[in-house]
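To whoever is covering the structure queue this week,

Two jobs came back overnight. Logging them here so there's a record in the thread.

Job A:
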Amino acid sequence: MSPKLPENNSQTITDYLNHQKSLIAEDESEDSYKFAFDDEDFLLRRETLGVRFQLELLKPEILLHEQGIEHTITVFGSTRFVSSQVAQEMERSAKSPEALATAQKALLHSKYYDSAREFGSLVASYNASQFEARNKLHIATGGGPGIMEAANRGAFEAGDKSIGFNISLPREQHPNQYLTPGLSFRFHYFAIRKMHFMLRARAIVAYPGGFGSFDELFEVLTLMQTKKVVRFPIILVGRDFWCETIRFETMLQNGVIDQEDMNLIHFVENAESAWHVIQDWYQLA
């Protein structure tokens, strides 16, 4: 009995676009005669995976360069948090005990949304005092809702550029409304998206979040621990959440990480403290 292993353990671009295998056979001259760059079915073949990787890497690289963006601060966090204003409205309109409990939880977590929004505004205020693009730091997020929206919103409302690296999912994640036109990008491959989170990052600011936030955070920590990238501040907002969820001290005691690894992390409680860490690190005015 042969094992029933999947042919591909992730959603393929062909599946995503609902292309059938028969469409990429190109048995007809009409198909084979097309320019390679104008032949969508050919570009979706398994053999052209490397080309698609290159294109996803290159497109944002070119557009960001054209916009003069050299440095970013990448902000992670839960997609589920809403502003205090939205949470209060949820509480006022709750019609059942379940809805009221949901609203109260949203109100509890709204402090993180409001903090991320304030942080985006603080970074934008700094940029407004700089005349050269090479001295500016721009907010970059995953481009979706929650903490991502909040950080983008703070920068956008202050008149600064706001970047979103969105990802195509089976349940589509739509870009938030606070992204600068021309700086909202869509990725199919998580790996390339993560590269763009890091390529220009001069700091990481992580708010409480779920699997996605932890995935991104540990990727950065691993890159720094193994000295694959130059070290820069990794700022975790909300010490209680992070230290209750990740037992850093237990990891230290068991010798699976070193104190040097813990020195990568800065715990703060608010947006102003997060910005002060970055200011001190880079000696910003």
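Job B:
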Amino acid sequence: MTEPSLQTTAEAYDAVAVLYAEFARDAFDAFPLDRAVLAAFAELVRTTGSGTVAELGCGPGQTTAHLRDLGLDVFGVDLSPVMIELAREAYPDLRFEHGSMDALDLADGALHGIVSWYSIIHTPPRDLPSYFAEFRRVLAPGGHLLLAFFESEGGPLTTFDHKVTTAYRWPIDDLAELAGEAGFTEIGRMLREPGEGERYRRGHLLMRLAGVTGANE
């Protein structure tokens, strides 16, 4: 992502971090399908070997903690320094780091799994291939990727007025194709209709990295 976009997103989430953390604290209670797709991801990671998982764009840490409760060795990364502070305060037993998803301070193949839970939604579409390339670089061969995003419900890729900053709604097929071009193979997908207080359909893609070791191979 370009630097102005990174700065805009970080500052926007810094400004609402406390309210966002309060809103997100019980985010999974009303959505069994969300819990189910996270559980499926966790089971796949556990059954294909041991290793570290990163939640990229972890916000105040509630999804990272949920993944920990599912038995994963997980840590969180977020662009917003305030979000990282709140996550560390709420979950002192977990590791949280400040950083950008397109330039991770990780060795090649360091991760066994990645969860991007509504964290690519603000990424300009032209920049998203570089994110997927970075995900591919830091995942070990056979590692798993879970994407959650706002789905376009039969329409084209479009922007919308997200409450924090401008975001995108993706056709699920287009997003799966883009990830496929980066070396990911789709395992499954889940579409969830909007719940109470939600405006848009939610999309989820569960993917596996092919048996390659580097971003440029």
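Note for Job B: The longest strand covers residues 139-151.

Please reply-all if you pick these up so we don't duplicate work.
Q.
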